[in-house]
Write a structure and sequence with these properties.
Largest sheet: 6 strands, antiparallel
Radius of gyration: 17 Å
Distance between the termini: 9 Å
CATH topology: Phosphatase 2c, domain 1
Order of helices and strands: EEEHHEEEEEHHEEHHHE
CATH superfamily: PPM-type phosphatase domain
């Protein structure tokens, strides 16, 4: 298995509040672990929330010996939520801090995914498929038929998310299990990429098998910045051995 992760501050923001993590090697009872988190909050609070979430998830996964990936990931998310909530009470500067989170693990040819917020996971081969579902006001409007999908990316309420790590004492993550096929590539990313780059361009870049994952990540980040770079950009790429 190959993987690569990268973040970029973008063209507008002064601070990078995205945190990413990729390990193709075993972490605790899991054979691999991948995380994307997009922090929110005041000065340094979003940065701290995303970093604390990644650190807590990796620490908890390392210490658990449960064999079921969903059980391990669920417990790690619960502990991360408690950690961010606890930290938010330590200072007025941290009040309201939180973060999105996408976590994945590949076991043989099965992909296990958890998500909270509007960071995403895609599976790409000849076409691009979004696996996660955004927890956002805009996504709710689309699902109710009150907003067209084509208008979602530019809607003024795009950044209002409805679930986050640190948002409530009890966190609700969505879980997905996907059967992987040979030549699948996996993209996990923050909305700093997906708000700037259309799915067709993502597919064209990631689908180019001549490019290494490092080269793909650079081209994705470059594309987001060319289109405005209005937010931080966080990317994790995975090439499973199926």
């Amino acid at each position: 298995m190959k993987s690569y992760c990268a973040t970029d501050v973008g063209k507008v923001r002064k601070m990078n509040q995205d945190s990413v993590y990729a390990s193709s090697e075993p972490i605790g009872s899991l054979p691999n672990l991948f995380i994307v988190a997009d922090g929110m909050g005041g000065h340094k609070a979003g940065d701290l929330a995303s970093k604390l979430t990644v650190e807590t998830v990796t620490d908890i996964v390392s210490s658990l010996d449960a064999s079921d990936p969903i059980t391990v990931i669920r417990k790690a998310i619960e502990r991360a939520n408690s950690a961010v909530l606890g930290k938010s009470k330590e200072s007025l500067d941290y009040q309201g801090m939180g973060t999105t989170c996408v976590i994945s693990c590949v076991v043989e040819n099965n992909l296990y995914v958890a998500n909270i917020g509007d960071s995403r996971l895609y599976v790409i081969d000849k076409e691009i498929t979004q696996i996660t579902r955004d927890h956002s006001l805009v996504e709710e409007l689309v699902s109710r038929g009150q907003l067209a999908r084509k208008d979602a990316r530019t809607n003024r309420n795009k950044n209002i998310i409805t679930r986050a790590i640190g948002g409530q004492p009890v966190v609700m993550a969505d879980f997905f299990e996907v059967k992987l096929k040979p030549k699948d590539r996996i993209l996990m990313c923050t909305d700093g990429l997906t708000n700037m780059v259309e799915d067709e361009e993502l597919l064209r870049i990631i689908g180019d098998r001549r490019l290494s994952l490092r080269e793909v990540a650079k081209r994705l980040i470059d594309a987001a910045n060319v289109h405005g770079g209005k937010d931080n950009i966080g990317v994790v790429l995975i090439e499973p051995e199926v």
